[in-house]
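Sequence in, structure out. Go.
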Amino acid sequence: MRKKVMIKAGTVLLLAVLFCGLIVHPGVKANTVEDYGIISVYGEAVITAAPDIARVVMAVETRHESAKTAAEENARLTDAVIDALVQAGFDKKQVKTSGYRLSSYEQQVDPQNREKYMTIYRAYNELTVTVHDLDTVGNVVDIALKAGANRILSIRFELKDEEALKLQALQNATAQAKAKAVAIAQSAGVTIKGIKVIHEEMSGYSPYRVSLDQSESAKMMEQAPTPIIPGDVEVTARVKAEYFF
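Output:
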């Protein structure tokens, strides 16, 4: 009986020692990330890539003293542009209306009589043509202008799927951030222990744009074929990271 009591007492003592070992002494503080120094850095990356799709934005604009006539003439010319593109082999699904408006303004009739005005109605139909074969972008411009479009607003060269390049740019930006942190730490004579936080500042891409004004549209009508040479698009990413040492 006495032996059993001694065994139980020993067990209790052992558990007490183990329990005390789990308790942090009030005077001893466990290390946390906040106890370390912080190095904050930004990482940036730019990837260039050849575009694989283009969007040609054009417009048909008509004006007349009658709103009905302006709208009807605009519809006729717009249909002619779409039909010409389809006859040239483009799918009708590649042509979308991206804007339409019918507005009016006052125009002076007689320069000698400043009080005499007439109302002019302006119909404006904007079309966006998606082009998959970049070699035919110039053909789209020529066909549209000859069929009735009187403005080429812009030509954008884009990517069908930019997500893979965005991820690659983020990886490159993260690698640059780490390299910066290591360089700073080495210069300061400290060693990086780990990363506290990292987050994406931005990622995206910029299409290659060819912007044209009305005078340039007129020049295109005088020359054929229209040479359109695409440029590379840029995919960019930026991250912010904090490392502790």
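Check: Residues 47 and 168 are 8 Å apart (CA to CA). The mean pLDDT is 85.
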